[in-house]
């Protein structure tokens, strides 16, 4: 029994040290890609720190009392650091994008339902995805990682979506936009680098008012076999923020950002945009990886809006065979 407790203490101490190192590195102010990646697993690091800290506190460590005290206190401090990044997204926090009033939610002429989904090029469960879209009944569908196969697979939806912009690509950066709302001056722009397009278009609501839609899918912050975006994360969101400042009226930014909600790049978009993350105060919506247990997932798909919007709902529909979950929101453009 004593030997088992000793092994368990050393195991908890090892996990605590690793999680503390991860926490320390994650707050370093540097654009180095592997440092930025350490900010992704904050929820996982928090869970390890809490488990290790509580476990050591309960077990004690008479033979290494100073080490025991130091580790318990360090786990507490590390937990506070990690929790400070996650806290704004919990439902107990205040919302930066207000909820729609009942009267606003009933105004169908001012509402828009938007669904984003990274389909995963190798995913062949198209029937499952098509049924999910029909059940969700979005006004706007933004599908990413769409190659020629997926462009054809989505075509049965076309009768319901008269306005479309299709950009199939053989790599991970194809995009397809289907819309029930009329598109105004739809165009693409390489905000990051050649081969990584973004969609920019005006959209007209049923009441005649318009807003600008940005559909983006930046490259991940790690070396990639596709167009490598290492070192370009701040650049693409800085360009989006600049375009937002130059665009009059309300705007919506949506897509697979390949970045977590609490990253410095996302914070830059919020400050410079200015736009707000609709998930703040509503919950952490981990959309990647749909193939792993829930505690191992990260929120990579997002909606950001200008202050004119209100939120009717934000939901994560069921998995459709991709490594990403879909993300669905219903928004209303305020008349105030």
Keywords:
6-stranded mixed β-sheet, Deoxyribonuclease I, Chain A, 336 residues, 12 strands, 2 domains, alpha+beta
Average pLDDT rating: 92
For the record, the CATH architecture of the largest domain stands as: 4-Layer Sandwich
Give the terminus-to-terminus CA distance.
68 Å
Oligomer: single chain
The number of strands is: 12
String of helices and strands: HHHHHEHEHEEEEEHEHEEEE
Can you describe what's shown?
The chain is an alpha+beta fold. It has 2 domains: 2-89, no CATH class; 102-333, 4-Layer Sandwich (Deoxyribonuclease I, Chain A), CATH 3.60.10. It has helices spanning 2-26, 33-37, 42-59, 65-86, 102-106, 126-136, 148-153, 233-246, 264-272, and strands at residues 111-118, 140-144, 163-167, 175-179, 182-189, 198-204, 210-216, 251-256, 276-277, 301-305, 309-315, 327-333. Strands 3-4-2-1-12-11 form a 6-stranded mixed beta sheet, with no helix packed on it. Helix 6 (126-136) links the parallel strand 1 and strand 2 (140-144). Helix 8 packs parallel to helix 9 (264-272). The longest helix is centred in the first third of the chain and has 25 residues, at 2-26. The relative contact order is 0.15.
Secondary-structure map with pairings?
Blueprint: H1 2-26, H2 33-37, H3 42-59, H4 65-86, H5 102-106, E1 111-118, H6 126-136, E2 140-144, H7 148-153, E3 163-167, E4 175-179, E5 182-189, E6 198-204, E7 210-216, H8 233-246, E8 251-256, H9 264-272, E9 276-277, E10 301-305, E11 309-315, E12 327-333
Parallel strand pairs: 1-2, 7-8
Antiparallel strand pairs: 1-12, 2-4, 3-4, 5-6, 6-7, 8-10, 9-10, 11-12
Helix pairs in contact: 1-3, 1-4, 3-4, 8-9
């Amino acid at each position: 029994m004593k030997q088992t407790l000793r092994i368990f203490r050393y195991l908890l101490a090892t996990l605590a040290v690793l999680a503390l190192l991860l926490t320390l590195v994650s707050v370093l102010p540097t654009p180095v890609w592997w440092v930025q990646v350490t900010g992704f697993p904050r929820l996982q690091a928090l869970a390890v720190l809490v488990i290790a800290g509580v476990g050591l506190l309960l077990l004690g460590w008479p033979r290494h009392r100073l080490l025991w005290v130091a580790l318990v206190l360090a786990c507490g401090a590390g937990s506070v650091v990690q929790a400070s990044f996650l806290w704004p997204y919990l439902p107990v926090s205040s919302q930066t994008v207000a909820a729609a009033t009942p009267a606003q939610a009933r105004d169908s002429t001012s509402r828009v339902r938007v669904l984003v989904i990274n389909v995963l090029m190798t995913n062949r469960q198209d029937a499952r995805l098509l049924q999910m879209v029909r059940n969700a009944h979005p006004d706007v569908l933004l599908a990413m990682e769409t190659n020629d196969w997926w462009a054809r697979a989505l075509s049965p939806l076309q009768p319901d979506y008269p306005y479309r912009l299709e950009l199939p690509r053989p790599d991970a950066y194809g995009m397809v936009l289907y819309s029930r709302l009329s598109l105004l001056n739809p165009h693409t722009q390489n905000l990051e680098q050649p081969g990584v397009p973004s969609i920019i278009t005006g959209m007209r609501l049923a009441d005649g008012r318009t807003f600008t839609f940005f559909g983006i899918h930046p490259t991940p912050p790690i070396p990639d076999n596709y167009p490598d975006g290492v070192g370009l994360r701040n650049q693409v969101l800085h360009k989006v923020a600049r375009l937002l400042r130059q665009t009059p009226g309300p705007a919506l930014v949506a897509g697979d950002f390949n970045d977590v909600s609490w990253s410095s790049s996302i914070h830059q978009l919020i400050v410079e945009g200015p736009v707000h993350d609709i998930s703040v105060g509503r919950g952490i919506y981990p959309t990647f990886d749909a193939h792993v247990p829930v505690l191992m997932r990260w929120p990579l798909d997002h909606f950001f809006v200008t202050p004119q919007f209100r939120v009717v709902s934000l939901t994560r529909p069921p998995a459709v065979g991709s490594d990403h979950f879909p993300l669905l929101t219903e928004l209303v453009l305020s008349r105030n």
